[in-house]
Automatic annotation (TrEMBL):
A GO BP entry: spliceosomal tri-snRNP complex assembly
Residue ranges annotated for the AAR2 C-terminal domain, each copy included: 223-376
Complex formation: Interacts with PRPF8 (via RNase H homology domain). Component of a U5 snRNP complex that contains PRPF8.
Species annotation: Euphydryas editha (Edith's checkerspot)
Region Disordered: start-end pairs: 160-210
Protein purpose: Component of the U5 snRNP complex that is required for spliceosome assembly and for pre-mRNA splicing.
PANTHER family according to UniProt: A1 CISTRON SPLICING FACTOR AAR2-RELATED (PTHR12689), PROTEIN AAR2 HOMOLOG (PTHR12689:SF4)
One annotated Gene Ontology cellular component of this protein: spliceosomal complex
Biased composition (Low complexity): 184-193
Protein's recorded name: Protein AAR2 homolog
Length: 396
């Protein structure tokens, strides 16, 4: 970094002191990660704003790496944060650091300064783009209650009496002939004494054998739940079809659970970072579902122009940072993300989006075509599997 920036961050930058971290522990901030040395004590010159601190314990004997853990924190100017490593848990300590201890470290800052790594400033501009709509309040709202974002969430063990026993014998599938025989032999005219047996599918049997494990209290992510019902109660069949084709109603419900509309983009960014950095597959699924939802709206594009403007800016940088194996799957198999983006571009074409938003959409589409060779031609033509099916009804 240039000298002026370095001087400014030395004065205004935050400091994260991490005491007792074993050598070779994987430690990182934002998109940068290192293996710690023996005299590592933390990070200095952290630009004010939101940051993601993460770590993984490493077994010195085998080299095995534990699932990644971390937390997001909004650093204020000159903030001084101190955390301890718990050797027994091989994790960050839950114990609070006393104000006296923090003050002693501050007073001794000149001596520990050489053990603090400078923030990797070369990633700062890209990081700001990836977190542009995540406020401190939103990050706290979406993070687990205990504050720790884990790649592998602790699950509660089941009590023995709650363990699955499979499907009971009297819930198994009976054949139609057996049911008919039972009714003919035991029923009387006008009344049937044989109860119809509930049919159980193979999926239901398999599900009944699986334990219903739940995350430990305070450990679960708190993403906004995407409504299962895509339409208002009392909707006519025509209205239900409309709401499935245009999911603006569902987006309205999601946005209503936030303090402001742009927080839905903040949640998209938060979920992506918990996947990209935190290695959470749960977060990846939520990110994908949000992308699908935003790409499945028609009326909302005009109602929430600012939301979709920032959606384009966000997903463009996210796709650039996507891990190669996930990006390869999108490119080679034309998976759901590609298909929904194609739907989104078609919707923008049909609904006649204009102005700056249209310019951004066109640029995004061209960039994807150039970098990934994605084909977005023929947007005015229905896909083969999306064409309406014509059903001929027999006349009486």
């Amino acid at each position: 970094m240039d000298q002026e920036t370095a001087k400014k961050l030395l004065v205004e930058g935050g400091t994260f002191v991490f005491l007792g971290v074993p050598q070779e522990t994987q430690f990182g901030i934002d998109m940068q990660c290192w293996n710690t040395e023996e005299d590592f004590r933390g990070i200095k010159m952290i630009p004010p704003g939101l940051h993601y601190i993460h770590y993984s314990a490493v077994n010195k004997g085998t080299g095995d790496i534990s699932p990644r853990s971390g937390f997001m924190h909004y650093f204020q100017k000159r903030e001084f944060m101190v955390k301890m490593w718990d050797k027994n848990m091989e994790d960050i300590s839950n114990d609070e650091i006393s104000e006296e201890s923090i003050q002693r470290l501050k007073d001794n800052l000149l001596n520990i300064d050489r053990h603090l790594a400078p923030y990797p400033y070369e990633i700062w501009q890209k990081w700001k783009l990836l977190t542009s709509q995540i406020t401190a309040e939103l990050a706290k709202k979406l993070s687990p209650i205990n504050g720790l974002i884990r790649a592998s969430v602790d699950l509660l063990p089941m009590k023995d009496e709650d363990r699955p026993r499979g499907v009971k014998a009297n819930e198994s599938i009976e054949s139609d002939s057996e049911s008919k025989d039972s009714q003919s032999s035991e029923s009387t005219p006008g009344q049937s004494s044989a109860k119809r047996v509930k049919r159980t599918t193979r999926e239901e049997k398999e599900k009944a054998m699986l334990p219903d494990l739940k995350p430990a209290p305070g450990a679960a992510m708190r993403f906004t739940e995407i409504p299962q019902d895509k339409y208002p109660s009392g909707s006519t069949p025509e209205e239900i079809t409309k709401h499935y084709l245009d999911q603006s109603y569902t987006l309205d419900l999601m946005i209503s659970q936030h303090d402001e509309p742009l927080h839905i983009i903040g949640e998209l960014q938060f979920a992506y970072l918990c996947f990209l950095i935190g290695q959470s597959l749960e977060a990846f699924e939520h990110w994908k579902n949000l992308v699908v939802l935003l790409c499945s709206c028609d009326d909302a594009i005009h109602k929430y122009r600012s939301v979709f403007f920032h959606f384009i800016r966000t997903i463009e940088i996210q796709i650039e940072e996507m891990p190669e194996e996930f990006l390869a799957d999108i490119v080679m198999n034309k998976n759901l993300v590609y298909k929904k983006l194609r739907d989104f571009f078609r919707t923008a074409y049909v609904s006649k989006v204009d102005g700056r938003l249209l310019t951004m959409i066109e640029r995004f589409k061209e960039n994807l075509t150039q970098k990934l060779q994605w084909d977005f031609t023929g947007l005015d033509i229905d896909e083969e599997d999306e064409r309406p099916v014509i059903v001929k009804l027999d006349k009486e």
